[in-house]
Structures are given as C-alpha cells and as structure tokens.
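Example 3.2
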Amino acid sequence: MVKPYTEEEEKKVQVKRMFNKIAPFYDFLNHFLSLGIDNRWRKKAIRKLESLQPDTILDIATGTGDLAIMANKMLSPSKIIGLDLSEEMLTVGRKKMVKKELDQKIEMIQGDSENLPFEDDSFDAVIVAFGVRNFQNLEKGLNEMQRVLKKGGKMVILEFTKPRNLLFKTSFNLYFKYILPLIGRITSKDPKAYKYLYESVQAFPDYDKLVAYMENAGLKNNSWDSLSFGICAIYTGEK
C-alpha cells in the first residue's frame, strides 16, 4: 500500500491531511498539469450514465465538486451528494456551489468512503473520479459503493492507469515521476503530494485487475474503456 508521507500512520489519515494542504491549489493544478484534458475525461465518464438517467447520484471523493457539477449539467438529476474526507477540499467546493447557484442541488458532506453514512439501495448511480486509488481498503470501499446503489443502478469510476504502449509509457513516466512533482511542489508547497500521485498509480490494480475487484464486490456487467493512450480508464459496473 502506497502512502503519501509515512509508513506508520494509516493511509486515510495521511490522504486527508494531504488534500487539506493542497486544497487551495487543487483545481488550478488539475487543469494545468493535464492541459485541460481532465474535463474531457469527466464528460466521457458521465456519458456512461446517460442511458440510465439517474435521479440520485453519489459522488465519492468529490474533492471540490467538479465531477458533481458536470453530472448535474449533463444529467439534471434531482439530487447529487458529494462526499469527501477532506474538509478543506469541501470548503472550496461549497464556495463553488454557491457561486454557481448549485448549493441547493449539490450537497457536499464530509465522510469516509469506506464507511458511507447512507442506507442500502440509496442511489441510482455512484461515481468517483481519481479517488479509488486513495482508498485505504479498496475492497471495503467498493463494497460500500455497491451497498448504497439501488438494484439496477450503475457505478462509474474514472482513474489513472499505466499506459501499455512502451514509447508512451516512457514519456508518461518521465512526466508523472519528475516534471509533475516539480511543478506541484513549487505551486502547492507540498513536496510529497504529487510524488505520491505517481507512486500510487504505479501500485494501483488497473484494467482487468480492478474489474476483478468490482466483480468480487457484487457488481455485474463490469468493463473498462481506456482513454488518452492509456493515461486513464473509465470502469463501469451494475448492481
């Protein structure tokens, strides 16, 4: 298990502290370091729900709420709840919701994705962008996401992957291992946050391995679609 700072402290405590520290810079760095491609990835992930037209959506590891905002714009559900460990990220997100007049439509709450504060069968869809990689216990997190899904509901996961093309993999690794952490360190003042990004991607079970975890969690019709030469992938499953 890759942790942001030390081996001794549990991962979720460190992840919470890391995102609390970088919250003021998070949106800028996300869009800048990905050259804006991250918004296209989110749109493609949300399109996986268009045929379902969910009325209630849970956005796990919502951060500052970008995925929730996009889901609201594209799907117009009656309610979206965004949940995150980091109160500082949520503070930034709540300000965005007020500014966009979405604070009555999108509720931002602090919570643990591995111990969700919701009843069974509560949501038509559960979505998460770049969050499952940060779970302390991946199996527990996926089980919780499956638990709160209604029967017939759909889970959509957007997550970084390891490119398989050798040439692109080399370029990707150079950027993620050296250039991205340098820019992140200068901007966010946290030297380990973006080093952790690279290390966590390398250690994460992607592609068919993550699909196997989803199947073990009780999801069916699981599949993945690679994006941008394998930089990330969209995983979908149904309850």
